[in-house]
Amino acid sequence: MVTLREEHAQQTRDALIAAGTERFATDGYASTSVARIVEDARVSKGAFYHHFPDKKALLKAVVSAACERSEVMIRQTVESASESGDLVASALDAAMEAVQNDEDYRKLRQQASGVLSEQERRELDDRHRLPLVSSILDELRRQGELRAELDAQATTALVVALLETTKEEVTASDDPTARYAQFRPVLLRFIRSLAGD
């Protein structure tokens, strides 16, 4: 059972993440101060430092929360597609939707790549993208649409790397939809090449 204190602590953390998300997207990471974030969240600086050692840790939490929201949407799409359609195309399009259509999400990704180290970004991949892609590939394998002899861990790592490269390209583009349209057929062809004969 969650105590009142734990519930309040989670609400404070959520408020800080929401305020950080808004400020980083609108003003940018470098221009956003901890003082402004705590003012927006309506909490004390002490509360901020209780939850996050510094602004960079908040950025990691903000990006992680964005990944979680995207993951929920992708999982819902995959569940629907596994029953009625093209699982590969549906999952790929769902994975790229936020990068194409959500300008704030693109800004957060751009800032994260400029602030977080490669190791920190890899940790986010390990926590969010690897399990998601692994579960999608498992579903393809279950449906007989993925070669059983392929090493699951290697296949997952390679697909995640391709998706991350695509997201970086789409994020950096002035026309994200057109840039994704260039990558989409190549990605689909590659992933479908992993299918059984």
Automatic annotation (TrEMBL):
The keyword Transcription applies. PROSITE patterns: HTH_TETR_1 (PS01081), HTH_TETR_2 (PS50977). GO terms for molecular function: DNA-binding transcription factor activity; transcription cis-regulatory region binding. The keyword Transcription regulation applies. Residues 33-52 bind DNA. Transmembrane segments: none annotated. Gene3D superfamilies: Tetracycline Repressor, domain 2. Residues 10-70 form the HTH tetR-type domain. Keywords: DNA-binding, Transcription, Transcription regulation. Pfam families: TetR_N. PANTHER family: HTH-TYPE TRANSCRIPTIONAL REGULATOR BETI, HTH-TYPE TRANSCRIPTIONAL REGULATOR RUTR. This is Transcriptional regulator, TetR family. It comes from Corynebacterium variabile. The lineage of its organism: Bacteria, Bacillati, Actinomycetota, Actinomycetes, Mycobacteriales.
